[in-house]
Amino acid sequence: MSSEKLILDACCGSKMFWFNKKNQNVLFVDKRRETVTAKDRDKLRTIEINPDLVADFTNLPFEDNSFYMVVFDPPHLKTLGETSWMAKKYGRLSDNWREVIKKGFDECMRVLKPNGTLIFKWNESEIKTSEVLSIIPYEPLFGHTTGRQSKTIWMCFMK
Question: Which element (helix H / strand E) includes 97?
Fold first, then answer.
């Protein structure tokens, strides 16, 4: 499958960090399409996961060198209950998370054009960034730590 879009969001979830959730340059992909309602601290909350295409980031249905930019924000929590609000909102890592993250990163790099940019977002609540970087054969160019507890890091890679 080829795409006319310039940018791939490989696991978009509810597109939380996008200013324009309907950006015409972006192909939004996620492995699920659903509307989720759950109780979160005594509040009933709803989020919509509505990608342009349902696909798994470990096996993307695109030709090599398809996108100028890839955004990769995979699930980063592994100890959540399957029915918890956080698991429904962000997804949940499986026990073989190292293999999944490496395979996903390799797929994102495969579909990235030469000299293209990969933006990777990771939260260190349970797994340190250094551990994730040790399993992928790529080195970030730069990054920036954000969040209330400075546990989220955005990193930039170039193919």
Answer: helix 97-111
